[in-house]
Specification:
Layout (H helix, E strand, L loop, with lengths): L1 E6 L8 H13 L6 E3 L11 H7 L6 H13 L2 E10 L5 E8 L5 E6 L10 H4 L8 E3 L4 E4 L8 H9 L4 E5 L7 H15 L2 E5 L4 E2 L2 E2 L5 E3 L5 E4 L5 E6 L3 H9 L16
Parallel strand pairs: 1-2, 2-3, 7-8, 8-9
Antiparallel strand pairs: 1-14, 3-4, 4-5, 6-7, 9-12, 10-11, 12-13
Helix pairs in contact: 1-3
Organism: Streptomyces violascens
Protein name: Hydrolase
Family: Belongs to the carbon-nitrogen hydrolase superfamily. NIT1/NIT2 family.
């Protein structure tokens, strides 16, 4: 299975329409891939809070239509990163979109853990509540977004739901880049799953981005890592490696669930 991660430079001087068109062209160049992944909130920038409401779209909006066409033209599964979604309830959500090779919106995921510590995304956007998995022909993807990476219980839930690989679009800041790499490898090791973590490049809303999109195998080995600029990573994944790793080192079966809080 061939996967490509497009680490997009979210330039504040590039219009959203221009970036949509440019990204669509990049996707169409990846016809040899089976899965293409984009970053979090790449249309506006993950820290451009003032743009969330103005650029919010429905799941059938301009970005969704453009990504649907690109997926269909390339004949690939497309994790189109996330968009600021305007829900039917009027609230905003940080929502990931997954399109099938025929261009259908197959799955969506509203980010559960919102970043900001009572500021920014944490107060501007609603929280999702559903774990989402996407069955592909060769393996099942578990969906998470950026700050979710810090919460291992979410990933264990995805493993229990059948995930063999995690797709994590992000707008991760440069000042915490070491955490990005560490956490991506930790989630791979503890869950014996592939991690495909796709970030943004450049600086937006005054926040330098980490870049360094990364693909980690189920043993925690880094298969590919981008630099700090716009770049596309393409990696061949062996779905059997998930099953082989879990069989050779069956740590997941030793989990102890439902532990009580110690009495004081």
């Amino acid at each position: 299975m061939r996967a490509s991660l497009i680490q997009i430079d979210v330039d504040p001087y590039e219009s959203v329409n221009s970036r949509r068109e440019r990204v669509g062209s990049l996707i169409r160049e990846l016809r040899s891939s089976d899965l293409v992944v984009l970053p979090e909130l790449w249309t506006v920038g993950a820290f451009a809070y003032e743009l969330f409401a103005d650029e919010a779209e429905t799941l059938r909006g301009t970005t969704a239509r453009a990504m649907s066409e690109a997926a269909r033209d390339a004949g690939i599964w497309l994790h189109a990163g996330s968009i600021p979604e305007r829900g039917e309830d009027g609230a905003l959500y940080n929502t990931s979109l997954v399109f099938s090779p025929d261009g259908e919106l197959a799955h969506s995921y509203r980010k559960i853990h919102r970043f900001g510590f009572d500021k920014g995304e944490a107060v501007l956007m609603g929280a999702g509540s559903d774990l989402v998995t996407v069955p592909l022909p060769d393996l099942t993807l578990g969906l998470a977004t950026c700050y979710d990476l810090r919460f291992p219980e979410l990933f264990r839930g995805l493993v229990d739901a059948g995930a063999h690989a995690f797709v994590v679009p992000a707008g991760w800041p440069e000042r915490r880049r070491a955490h990005w790499t560490l956490l991506a490898r930790a989630r791979a090791v503890e869950d014996q799953a592939y991690v495909l973590a796709c970030g943004t490049a450049g600086t937006h809303a005054g926040v330098p981005q980490a870049g360094h999109s990364i693909v980690v195998d189920p043993w925690g080995e880094v298969l590919a890592e981008a630099g700090s600029g716009e770049e596309t990573l393409t990696v061949d994944l062996d779905p059997a490696k998930v099953f082989d790793t879990r069989e050779a080192f069956p740590a997941l079966k030793d989990r102890v669930l439902g532990l009580d809080t110690p009495k004081r």
